[in-house]
Structure formats: C-alpha cells, structure tokens
C-alpha cells in the first residue's frame, strides 16, 4: 500500500486575528503552510500530497506550488465548513485521483508548520510496524500526540475553575494522523449527516466507529499556530533550525 498526505488548508484562521487566513501569513520568509509542505517534500515515500484549500483562496494557494516539486503536490479547492468536512472532501478527491482505498493517508494540519521529516517518518514507521505486528488486523492507524504537561481544569459558566481532572493517561492529539483511506472516509461519512459534530481530528472519527488508534509520541515543538502569539513562537522555532 502506498502513503499519501492530505493537508486541510481551508480554515479562515479567525482565532489568529490576522487579515488573511493564518496559513498564508508570511513567516520565516514564506507563507506559513509552505514550511508544512516542505517537510512533506522531504519524505520521498509519500507518493502525493493533496492540499485542500477554500475556493476563495485559489490565488494564494496557486503560488505555493512554485517552490515545491510539481509531480508530488496538487491543490484541491474543495474545502468545507469544518476541518472534518475539508478532510472528507479531500479523501474523495484522493480516490478520484487514483489512490486505492487500502492506501494510507497522513492527514496533517496546514497550521502545524513545525512538523519535520523525522517526525513524519517516526509516525509512518510506528504505524506500519504496529500494523504488521497486529495479527488480528485490529490496528486502524496512528497519530502523533504528547502527554498532557499541564494541570487540566474544567470551568463553570462564570469562568471559575470548577474541578481538576487527573492528567495521567491524557494526551494532546497532534497531526499527522495516519489511517487507510477507505475506513477513514467511511468513518467520516457516518458523521456527515450530523455536520461532523464533535469530530475535531481523524482519530475521533475512527474512535467513534470502535477503533483504538496508536498514540506515537510527537514533539512539543509540533505546535498548531492558533493564537496571535503563536506566530512569534513558530518563527523563533523555525529560526533555530538555521543556526
Ligand atoms: O482552526 P484549526 O487551527 O483547528 O484548523 C486546523 C487545520 O484545519 C488548519 O490547517 C485549517 O486550515 C484547516 N481547516 C480546513 N477547513 C476548515 C477549517 C479548518 O481545512 N473549514
């Protein structure tokens, strides 16, 4: 089975407070998502990378391909109203483009621009090794994640801490998340009628149909640029690579 990558890149980035979608904001001399894509360009065993964009962002998106290997990257302007819908539409496009349902797909947030080829390879190796060791064939896939470092609170309606949850056994899900295309497409299809409610990553869709994906330790540097202050942090982390 081959490996493909799917990059949901169709968000509006409203929490980041920028004028244009955050994934196109310049950072370290290039649009934010360009750094994301450059990491995938550094993993030759990924057959093709499909970038799911919002229909209105065509002009911004087209320029991304200038500095990437043309045969390995493609755009699909089929972004949806939610991240899950963008991924669902992108999976259909991958199948239309000749990917097999039994092929693997690595879904990765455009906004996680600190991803590296080494982390991508760590996930692929862990997933393929665990899948081949799993004789019942029950392992559906894997995701990068980090053990929760902080104390976890629930808040009441007044914004006061109401309870503290034990952090043992709790992980923060990152991306990439790696599954076979057909089961992931089917798991998302089952949630389409409810508007993908509660589906904030691929693993949550798979868990909802009974899967238990493998957690593979990611990196604290693999942040998703979400808040205005994340841009400076991401720029500083990118900068340290050139020193
Ligand atoms: O908003 P958030 O940071 O959680 O988005 C995660 C990723 O999903 C981003 O890369 C964003 O561009 C993408 N996304 C999308 N379609 C949407 C919403 C978000 O592709 N409708």
From TrEMBL:
Site (Transition state stabilizer) location in chain: 15, 22
GO biological process: isopentenyl diphosphate biosynthetic process, methylerythritol 4-phosphate pathway
EC number from the UniProt entry: 2.7.7.60
Annotated site (Positions MEP for the nucleophilic attack): 167, 224
Keyword Nucleotide-binding: no
HAMAP family for the chain: IspD
Family listed: Belongs to the IspD/TarI cytidylyltransferase family. IspD subfamily.
Protein name: 2-C-methyl-D-erythritol 4-phosphate cytidylyltransferase
Organism of provenance: Ottowia cancrivicina
């Amino acid at each position: 089975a081959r490996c493909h990558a799917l990059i949901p890149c169709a968000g509006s980035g409203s929490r980041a407070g920028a004028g244009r979608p955050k994934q196109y904001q310049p950072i370290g001399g290039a649009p934010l998502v360009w750094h994301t894509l450059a990491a995938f360009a550094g993993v030759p065993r990924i057959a093709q990378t499909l970038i799911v964009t919002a229909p209105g962002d065509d002009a911004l998106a087209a320029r991304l391909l200038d500095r990437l290997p043309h045969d390995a990257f493609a755009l699909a302007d089929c972004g949806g109203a939610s991240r899950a819908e963008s991924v669902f539409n992108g999976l259909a496009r991958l199948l239309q483009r000749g990917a097999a349902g039994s092929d693997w797909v690595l879904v990765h947030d455009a906004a996680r621009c600190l991803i590296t080829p080494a982390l991508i390879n760590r996930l692929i190796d862990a997933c393929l090794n665990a899948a081949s060791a799993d004789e019942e064939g029950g392992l559906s896939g894997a995701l990068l994640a980090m053990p929760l470092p902080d104390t976890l609170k629930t808040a009441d309606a007044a914004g006061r801490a109401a309870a503290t949850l034990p952090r043992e056994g709790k992980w923060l899900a990152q991306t990439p998340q790696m599954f076979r295309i057909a089961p992931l497409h089917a798991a998302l299809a089952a949630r389409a009628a409810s508007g993908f409610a509660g589906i904030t990553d691929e693993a949550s869709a798979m868990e909802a149909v009974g899967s238990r994906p493998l957690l593979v330790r990611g990196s604290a540097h693999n942040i998703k640029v979400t808040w205005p202050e994340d841009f400076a942090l991401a720029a500083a982390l990118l900068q340290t690579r050139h020193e």
